[in-house]
Amino acid sequence: MSINTTVIGSPLAGTSVLFSILDVLASVGRDWEMLHGMPAQVPGFQVSFRTIDGAPYWDVNGRKITPDAMLDERPEPDVIIVPDLHFDPNGGFPEDHRKIADWIAAAHERGAIVTSVCSGAVLLGAAGLLDGKEATTHWGYAEMLGRNFPDVKVCRERILVPAGEGHRVVTAGGVSAWADLMLYLIARYSGADEARRIAKIYLIDPHSEGQLTYASLTSGRSHDDQLIADAQVWAAQNYDAPSPVTAMADRAQMTERGFLRRFKKATGQAPTEYIQTLRIEEAKQLLETTAMPIEDIATEIGYSEPSSFRSAFRKRVGVSASAYRRKWQALAPIET
């Protein structure tokens, strides 16, 4: 038995992820067996790459892409996968993708399991499949997803979120989370043993620590409040001050209470949370690029107690400061 799977393409689709999905699912029940001289033993995936009209298109990177078929062609899918899409994270849902969203909603109504990678979750939101559910997306699109679809509980820290009755909606986080989604689907339909075999073939490691270790904490929504924008510029240079929120309110010639309301309305964050975010982001940079002791980093960015810094760092980044340093300094050039 094969699992009929449709991977949706469009001129905004991330082509590398799209074709990686096609390759990995095609290898289920085939490649491990080929390497070991064994017959196929597990259900595989019959994968089709489809678009609304089935016509060739030019992707966002200027490459000509040829789909296999139109979305409406048979067979109807058991599983639908939406790859990452190059939406403007500061904009609304692109209405030229409305027909795709409607098709997804109808397919889900007929029984299909619908999944997404990265910003593809926005398409699931437009299909109405995330209302009242938890969902994840790339950290850079979390605000867009929540803004356009306020009934969605956005879990920006998570890599994979199965949701709804029977887990018939599954969202994956950042772009490389396509691999986590593939291992999940393979384990679900072909068994955990096959998922482990595929992971070994492709050298895939699940992102068990979540995606906060990759996120830029200062990514946020744009606004037109010049007074708050000026306060943000000042904060970026003075976040280590003893009482930065009081200083920002004084600079704005406002009461702290009034400044707090205006700041949160413009940015979506309380000013104290914003200052903490700036401090942790600076700490991340110091951990990545220097050998400065963690206690000294805490002092440098405005914490009087290293224990308070360590707690705040783990809360916002998902791992300890020392684990974060080990992860990212491993990418430093090798000295010869």
Summarize the structure.
With 336 residues, this protein is of the alpha/beta class. It is built from 14 helices and eleven strands. The protein has two domains: 2-202, Rossmann fold (3-Layer(aba) Sandwich); 226-329, Homeodomain-like (Arc Repressor Mutant, subunit A, Orthogonal Bundle).
Overview of the structural elements:
By secondary structure, the chain is an alpha/beta fold. Helices cover 44% and strands 12% of the residues.
Question: What order do the helices and strands come in, and which of them pair?
Answer:
Layout (H helix, E strand, L loop, with lengths): L1 E7 L6 H12 L4 H6 L7 E8 L5 E2 L5 E2 L3 E2 L8 E4 L15 H12 L3 E5 L3 H6 L7 E2 L6 H7 L4 E2 L5 E4 L5 E4 L5 H13 L1 H11 L23 H13 L5 H8 L4 H12 L3 H19 L4 H7 L5 H12 L3 H9 L7
Helix pairs in contact: 1-6, 6-7, 8-9, 9-10, 11-13, 11-14
Q: How would you describe this structure in keywords?
A:
336 residues; Rossmann fold; seven-stranded mixed sheet; alpha/beta; 44% helix; single chain; 12% strand
Shape: globular
The proportion of residues in beta strands is 5-15%
SS content category: alpha/beta
* Total count of domains: 2
CATH fold call of the largest domain: Rossmann fold
Described by strand count, sense and barrel closure, the largest sheet is: 7 strands, mixed
CATH homologous superfamily identity of the largest domain: Class I glutamine amidotransferase (GATase) domain
Helix content: 40-55%
Order of helices and strands: EHHEEEEEHEHEHEEEHHHHHHHHH
Straight-line distance between termini? 54 Å
Radius of gyration: 23 Å
Instruction: Specify the CATH class of the largest domain.
Output: Alpha Beta
Kindly state the number of beta strands: 11
Mean pLDDT: 87
CATH arch. level architecture of the largest domain: 3-Layer(aba) Sandwich
**How would you write the strand order of the largest sheet?**
5-2-1-6-7-11-10
Compute the number of helices: 14
Q: Which residues sit in consecutive blocks of at least 5 with pLDDT less than 50?
A: none
